[in-house]
Amino acid sequence: MSKSSREPNVIYVGRKPPMDYVLGIITSFTGSNANQVTLKARGQAINTAVDAAEIARNRFLKDVSVHKITIGTEEMPPREGEGRARNISTIEITLKRT
Amino acid sequence: MSKSSREPNVIYVGRKPPMDYVLGIITSFTGSNANQVTLKARGQAINTAVDAAEIARNRFLKDVSVHKITIGTEEMPPREGEGRARNISTIEITLKRT
Asked: Is A46 within 8 Å of chain B by CB?
């Protein structure tokens, strides 16, 4: 996952509540008139990303559907005091206007 | 999500550690010689399902890849003392032998 936040129409999902990201999705689709928006998340935030995608398309953006979902694994540097790198799961959910 | 646990090659992911489900995936692919296995999870277990799928295919089953991922929403009965039904996100990850 790129650390750049300049990638257009990509929303990095973290520890905020799902509705924060729903707002971001709506803003991307309506404000900048994007045709598709990708949510990227890893670890525990995967659940939040799925929630945000589902809330956005079921409740707010009826003309948007899930275009593509991919999962992957990223290697993270070891935590302090631990010797080994950790693997963490990632997800990318692309929503597209139909 | 069906409540039947008799559906062949479907693994319901819950609150156990990911490795428990990885073992289930391996058993399905090798023991019953299945061609594909579907993981189903909801809520917080979505993260565990992605972890299990990733660990299984990266570490143990090199000839297995992600065939399909779908997300959805399920209505759950309200918690005790709450009046409203809750919506919960779901995921289905199908792994297939390549």
From this structure: yes
